[in-house]
Sequence to fold (470 residues):
Amino acid sequence: MIKKGDIIEGKVERVDFPNKGVLTVDEEQLTVKNVIPGQYIRAVVNKRRKGKREARLLEVLHRAPGEREDDVCPHFTQCGGCIYQSLPYKEQLKIKEGQVKGLLDSVYPGGNYEWHGLKPSPLTDRYRNKMEFSFGDEVKGGDLALGMHRRGSFYDIVTTTDCRIVHQDVCQILEATLKYFQHRKVPFYQKLQHVGYLRHLLVRRAVKTGEILVDLVTTSQTEWMAGEEKYEKIPCLEKELLSGWRETICALDLEGKLAGIIHTQNDSLADVVQNDRTEILYGQDFFYEELLGMRFKITPFSFFQTNSAGAEVLYETAREYIGNTKDKVVFDLYSGTGTIAQILAAVAKRVVGVELVEEAVEAAKENAAENGLKNCSFIAGDVGKVMDELTEKPDLIVLDPPRDGIHPKAMPKIIRFGVERIVYISCKPTSLIRDLVLLQEGGYQMVKACSVDMFPHTGGIETVVELRRL
Fold:
């Protein structure tokens, strides 16, 4: 019998969403994260969860058939982002399609629905328009690092100066920022001790317009040790430090155009990018991107699809599923900056968007005005609460919730509207499956589904489904 601490070897049979490899050793099934089907691996058993053994990858003994060794990102084996980059893109699509289809079939045995397959991303490299990099160290007590978390680690940071899924402008900004703060011996925020200054670097670069927004996220702690000298908590120190960083970024020879450089303070104990206070150091605190002939204003913390080219495929698919909206009222719930609402507004009687983030709602209103749309409105608030206040009945509901899916308290209120059709856009298949069960219990049947690969080389996938009321 396999027990904790045992070293095991075996062949990965499959990978369940998002990154859980499954293998059988001594007639017992184990899961190992961040592996590829067909690899022969060595791992150490470390825990039992929900009756299943879990193991941590130690070494890939033999590569999977077709897995390449060259032409991959130099950070591939360390960074926790792109688990499938060593596979040809067609093989990546096969794995993801199998994952989504298997989950959908678990709710609808026999596949009693139309499956329209998986649509590839138009771009597979340099496709992301947003990256959140973390400050830290690669090893405890090591030099300052800036990049992504090391695979399987909550603390270690891998400096990703040659990341393949972002534009080279982004890598250039990362490298310049890191060198600047390394030279000045500025400390990063330590999560356990809750001390330090540097937290995150947020870079957003539009694919269509080339506009760039750079945001340095720090704590408000401006007193720290630097060598033998202790700086006092003097505002001018921070002002001079940020001024020097701004000039460093402005001096870069970038292919795109800097729209703005901003500084955000975040004193939250949680390891998330949060806005306590924002100061504009250069330009403005927003940039513009274009999708399907429309122009969208994007602010630092508002939701916008991270793959602009892929978003056009996703929203075209959603528009096909939504169908004819002439003379119809549409509710766009979890509307973000209003992308879907505005795509539909041109052919609908009226569109109402509901979004929790006030900043995103304000951007959505400006975007609608910019695109000359007068028949869509946006409400800031929690979907579950706003639904209680809406008296108008929609003809169609579009759902595009965050990764965790629809809040259980909001689901009955959505079902209560009794619309004939619902189109659900999901960025996490497991959350979608949970919500599909609730919608099925509420009288809705999924009639068709399609996935769009918005995140090449990673485990992420978007799925669009249409549901009809029975």
Notes: The longest strand covers residues 52-62.
